[in-house]
Design brief:
The chain is mainly α. The chain is built from eight helices and no strands. The relative contact order is 0.12.
Length: 151
């Protein structure tokens, strides 16, 4: 095989393996294998968001958000393997994911309640939002219950 052929084969392998590894490591069963979040995953499984995978909420939007979450994930794996950690990680959700989904900008979830169709809701949330309130200020337990021992 020529040098160009080897490079092409490696690139093709990367193009195939990266998306597979991304999706394979984005399932709740994978997340709970290191994060010790069983109560949260169990709570999520019975919530209205049970079809929404962990990273849809817990990852920044865009390709660099994916790179960021997976690089943090590699760090968590290294800490898990070496036992070199002292505190639990704190959950985080990207507010833009809530807004995109609930303005029906996300084709994967076409049945998500649309904020534009809930009478008065946009008028109701505009003032607190302009003052810095987040969706989770009122909807903290939407994706899963909180206060399960890890918050």
């Amino acid at each position: 095989m020529t040098r160009l052929g080897k490079v092409a084969a490696i690139l093709l392998l990367i193009v195939i393996l990266l998306p597979m590894s991304y999706f394979g490591t984005s399932e709740p069963v994978f997340c709970r294998s290191c994060h010790y979040i069983d109560p949260y995953v169990d709570s999520w499984a019975s919530s209205s968001h049970q079809e929404v995978k962990c990273l849809f909420c817990h990852e920044a939007r865009g390709p660099f958000g994916k790179v960021n979450s997976k690089s943090r994930g590699l760090n968590y794996v290294a800490m898990h393997i070496t036992g070199n950690y002292t505190t639990a990680i704190k959950g985080w959700a990207d507010e833009r994911n809530c807004i995109a989904c609930h303005l029906n900008d996300v084709t994967k979830y076409p049945d998500a309640p649309n904020l534009k169709e809930i009478p008065g809701h946009l008028d109701y949330i505009a003032p607190p939002t302009q003052e810095g309130a987040l969706c989770i200020s009122c909807h903290a337990e939407t994706g899963h219950a909180l206060g399960l021992g890890l918050d």
